[in-house]
Amino acid sequence: WDGLDNTRVALRDITYKTLSRGQPSPMRPFMAATCYGDPALALEVGAAESRRLNFKSLAPAIVKQKRDDRLTVGYLSAGFCNHPTGQLVRRLFTHHDHKRLRVAMLDIGVDDGSDLLRELRGSCAMVLDLQRLSDHSAALAIRDAGVDILVDLHSWLQNHRMAIAAHRPCPVQVSWLGFPGTSGSSAKTSCAWAAVTSPTIPTPS
What we know:
Elements: H1 4-20, H2 29-34, H3 39-51, E1 71-77, H4 84-88, E2 101-107, H5 115-122, E3 126-129, H6 135-144, E4 149-152, H7 162-166, E5 172-176, E6 190-192
Parallel strand pairs: 1-2, 1-4, 2-3, 4-5, 5-6
């Protein structure tokens, strides 16, 4: 571990210089968000990665008249299985007000055959298996299913599918839970963080 601090500083400085030249970031968003405590760095790295996924928004879907007035909230993740994300949301879907909301699972993960995956699928009104679809096709499927609010539980985690949200399949798109920082993406309207994992840090003036 000798020299670790100097290496971290050098990588941060190289990243800032590289981004200032408009070149791809040598640092991945997860490292920027978790290893430095520097919100400006996390934002710049996330934004640089997101600009590479700056796809044209999909045209609004032609959706048949809904059977009721409920909003459809779609949760996007690769972790709806025996995975930390799956454990964290195990009771989430059952605690929604199902008179007002329709819950959709937008699954980009592999079926691990677990009881937890079956339990989570059974607690949702709609399940879209998107793992084998391209990013564009997955975005079309979400749009055509009439999902009103997209909640991305995955963001820049390993094997991310950030390009799905980059197509803007939903009117409202937010990040929550899985990634401990900003995605830097203009395709997301907001994000919700826990104070423990993402404490408020004063922005340098």
